[in-house]
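Q: How would the structure tokens look for this protein?
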Amino acid sequence: MIASIHGILEAQREDHLIIRVGGFGLRVFVPASTRNRFSTPGSEVSLYTHLHVREDGLALYGFAEEAERDMFELLISVSGVGPKVALALLSVLDAPTFYRAIAQEDVQLLARAPGVGKKLAARLVLELKGKVPAVAPGASTSGGIRRSEVLEALVGLGYSPAAAQAAIARLPQDQNLTLEEQITLALRSLAREL
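A: Here is the predicted structure in token form.
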């Protein structure tokens, strides 16, 4: 409903910011990484947002990066993970580290967040394993190769994220390959698997 907001920072609290938008002071719950970026009252703030609707009220959650909001929305889709736990995870792990932890089934890393025990971390891995890329969307890996774009193309062609990731892992680290060449090589690799 509310995809983003732009306003003036009025106050910073432990778990939220107060942002003045068009005469209204909005309380926006944020992870520590976002809260630490905006500390000067009176400064302009732009956030990607998620409006969380519950039977007892509405809550607005804000993120400095679109990837953080996407990760938050993915997290709250998991059984037993509410906004508070999702913010705790975002405060401890950035999106690329989170995606890597899920792909590598690193329960110990996920369990570092407050409110996330080993059982919940294992559930996160189980429910999100096929839904997240090993590389965060938009991130580039060593050599400047934008593997997330290759992943998106392969998944768009109907391959599972796991199969696409395996094919991408077999790509050469040649910096001079175009996106089309990377996709072609990945498709050839997938064809050999059949």
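Residues 139-145 have pLDDT under 50 and may be disordered.

The first helix runs from residue 32 to 37.

Upvote if useful.
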